[in-house]
């Protein structure tokens, strides 16, 4: 009812595709752990959050974590380090064994769910999502500045936190000062 699935439910769903899910810590999973890029996919869980890592055409890996800004590519080299860091953070990792369905590129037919993206489309979507996230932070910061100015009678004074009274403010310093209140903004 709450959308929280157990690994048993996910396992049963994947069985319909001829796939098997095993814990990375199991005997079968440990054989994959020596060469993590040999698995077709991983399912990761922490508390009530699940996400997948999947190998696609050309051996590229993608992180499908919905908490991230967009799809994130992973190199085969980084995959091992990423899985290790997840385990250290308390994530439970499951290996998907078997042959994943082949990508079905192209447009959606009526009644089908999802859409296959090429790696280039996924990268472009991720880059655009990151740009939108940054624009959103800047917009929020500017709205906050304008709100404070409105409450103070409509005046806006730009000054750097480390600038003394009467000291000129350069354009770069104004930008730095404005963005210093924005998380990750500068």
From TrEMBL:
InterPro entries for the chain: Ataxin-3 (IPR033865), Josephin (IPR006155)
A GO CC annotation given for this chain: nucleus
Gene Ontology biological process terms, A to Z: protein deubiquitination; proteolysis
Subcellular localization(s) per the UniProt record: Nucleus
UniProt-recorded Gene Ontology molecular function terms: cysteine-type deubiquitinase activity
Enzyme Commission code(s) on record: 3.4.19.12
Keyword Membrane: no
Span of domain Josephin: 1-111
Alphabetical keyword list: Hydrolase, Nucleus, Protease, Thiol protease, Transcription, Transcription regulation, Ubl conjugation pathway
Catalytic activity: Thiol-dependent hydrolysis of ester, thioester, amide, peptide and isopeptide bonds formed by the C-terminal Gly of ubiquitin (a 76-residue protein attached to proteins as an intracellular targeting signal)
Annotated protein name in UniProt: ubiquitinyl hydrolase 1
Organism of this sequence: Gonium pectorale
Source species taxonomy: Eukaryota, Viridiplantae, Chlorophyta, core chlorophytes, Chlorophyceae
């Amino acid at each position: 009812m709450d959308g929280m699935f157990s690994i048993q439910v996910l396992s049963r769903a994947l069985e319909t595709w001829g796939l098997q899910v095993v814990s990375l810590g199991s005997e079968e999973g440990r054989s994959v752990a020596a060469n993590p890029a040999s698995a077709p996919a991983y399912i990761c869980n922490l508390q009530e959050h699940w996400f997948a890592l999947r190998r696609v055409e050309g051996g590229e890996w993608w992180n499908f974590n919905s908490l991230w800004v967009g799809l994130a590519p992973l190199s085969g080299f980084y995959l091992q380090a990423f899985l290790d860091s997840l385990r250290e953070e308390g994530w439970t990792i499951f290996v998907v064994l078997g042959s994943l369905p082949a990508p079905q590129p192209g447009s959606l037919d009526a009644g089908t769910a999802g859409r296959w993206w090429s790696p280039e489309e996924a990268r472009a979507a991720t880059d655009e999502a990151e740009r939108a996230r940054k624009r959103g932070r800047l917009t929020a910061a500017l709205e906050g500045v304008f709100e404070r100015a409105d409450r103070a009678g409509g005046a806006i004074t730009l000054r750097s936190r480390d600038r003394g009274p009467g000291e000129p403010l350069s354009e770069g310093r104004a930008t730095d000062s404005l963005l210093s209140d924005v998380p990750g903004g500068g």
